[in-house]
Design brief:
By secondary structure, the protein is an alpha/beta fold. The chain has a 5-stranded parallel β-sheet with strand order 1-5-4-2-3. Strand 2, helix 3 and strand 3 form a beta-alpha-beta unit. The longest helix has 17 residues. The termini are far apart.
Length: 124
């Protein structure tokens, strides 16, 4: 019985690697504000605020570019101009929209995405 279970797990792992069926969550890392802040200080950081333009205008993290996730077409168009091999740092107000944005970026071929845990609310 145990051998069958082990064999089944091994087979799943093999096919996952063979067909690269890892989930987007494997490529997205949640960072607490204390980890996020030093990471975004790096030169050339791709820092994206996925909130609406009104939310962005009311306050954002310095050097963040606004790409509203609710405007999918523009979000994807602007994301295509970014370096897919360099890490991307995302945030929204609470973490929900940035989760959607991170999934979209991974599907578009971005290799590494970091998401601010708790969003901009946790930043302030």
């Amino acid at each position: 019985m145990r051998l069958t279970y082990f064999y089944r797990k091994l087979k799943i792992m093999f096919f996952s690697k063979l067909f690269k069926t890892s989930s987007y969550q494997d490529k997205v890392t949640l960072l607490a504000p204390s980890e996020f802040n030093p990471a975004i200080q790096k030169k050339g950081c791709q820092l994206i605020d996925v909130r609406t333009p009104n939310e962005y205008a009311a306050g954002t993290i310095q050097k963040a570019k606004n790409l509203n996730i609710f405007d999918r077409a523009t979000f994807k168009k602007e994301a295509e101009k970014m370096d897919k091999t360099a890490p991307v740092y995302l945030f929204c107000q609470s973490g929900n929209r940035s989760r959607t944005a991170s999934k979209t970026l991974i599907e578009m071929g971005f290799s590494t995405v970091f998401d601010l845990k708790g969003g901009y609310s946790s930043w302030r």
